[in-house]
Write the structure tokens for this entry.
Amino acid sequence: MRRVLRRFVNTGDLARREANFAALTPIAWIERAAKVHGSSVAVVDGERCWTWSETRNRAVRLSDALRAAGIGRNDVVQVMLDNTPEMYESHFGVPMSGACLGCINTRLDARAVAYILQHSEAKAFVYDARYDEVVADAKRILAAEYPNFAGTLRIEARVTSESDNAYEALVASGSPEATWAPPGDEWDALSLNYTSGTTGDPKGVVLHHRGAYLCALGNTLAFDGMNSRTRFLWTLPMFHCNGWNFPYSVAAIGGANVCLRQVNAESISEALETHGVTHLCGAPIVLRFATEAMNKAPPSDRRVKMMVAAAPPPPAILRAAQAAGLDVTHVYGLTEVYGPAALCEWQSEWNGLDDDAQALVRSRQGVEYATCARLDVVKPGTTTPVDRDGQTLGEIVFQGNTVMKGYFKNPAATEEAFKDGLYRTGDLAVVHADNYVDIKDRAKDIVISGGENISSIEVAAALVNHPQIHECAVVPRPDSKWGEHPCAFVELEPGATLTEADVIAYARTRLAGFKVPKTVVFEPLPRTSTGKIQKYILRERAKHLLED
């Protein structure tokens, strides 16, 4: 038997060759979309509208312009853009040049932006004029602390609606007839996304073409009804895990991208009516906005599909969304696994449950994507799965092609994350008898607010710099609007007279706006006999604080 099996190895007449192997890459789908759906709307942004043929040509022009500037394989192009056509075409044009796309969180402060630009060794930087002030401050920091950086930046292109639009000039300098090649290796880096992790120090997550291709296909399988008639509303920031790879999912099906710069109930309502939106994604706060928008619309039997991630939506919010006409799919993932990698796949037997029970099962993280090799919960420090009893806590782990390459220039963090052949998330969960995963805690004390990861350690470190604060600890507090928000428990110095407003105002001078605590509690911090703060007690207290 062994001699027979040897006939099927990758040698001789059964070797991998040009005719039977092509590197998987999601950027190739824009060529198919242009060929099959060329005259159909690809991207709409207010008064601006481009077909798939036009979008493809703009992406090719961008790739050609980047190559002409000497940018190619293993170079990083950073963009700081809203959900606009420029952001969408960058997801194709940048990797078409062979370079790696970096999407900077538009909510970050200047110091974080400066760190990402220099750490990623960016060769090009494209940013919207809306962020002129932050970019100017970041440049000053770069000049003072990284004086050699400017010499490595070959392209800086500002996006504006005025005649000095450097990005449009860059695109116009390229040719739509230029040839581009898919990656020679599907393991090549496609994107570099920075996540705050648990210490507050940004870590660069390197994702490859193969993983993005599979994740994008997984999205189309997980999200009911995605096809060429899909009208995808960009309520999810495209800078967030590359928009969970939905830029590529929409290209694969030849649907339409409806851009949205400001996410609120009014803008969603207008998009629903104007563009016939069928699908959207976001954090619990976006679910709340979408529910309000659907309730404003005239009564109809229309159903809109929505994918929700981050902290599990409260059952009451899920009930309201369903009643408004939103069919919610709850997903779970991280930047390190390309965005969503697990979903709460609906089971027909749940149709007989009452509303409360349905909302409870719908809020679970669920099972792995069809394109994810393995999702499991293991006993801490081991590779042994926990019992499927809905009680035993363990750590969520992943394996497979939709796990990152690793952390950029951080081998120690990469090795720690991949210990024992698993990607260890740091999230604690149980597994129910039906094999559905249910998160119970965040081992690394990350607060997920409005879909953004916030390091509690970073927030606490900023607050204790105040001379009247002796010590503090930050934990997540449930929030019906944001999912969670940072709640600071503060121990004051003797004689201090700080108020909650004082602490919040101070935090705003030290942190990006979305990281500022919305609740401050003044009390002695509970500690163990060795002096360690008992954060699990604080988390329970935060859960039961009276609503304002």
Notes: Residues 342 and 369 are 5 Å apart (CA to CA). The first helix runs from residue 2 to 5. The chain has a mean pLDDT of 91.
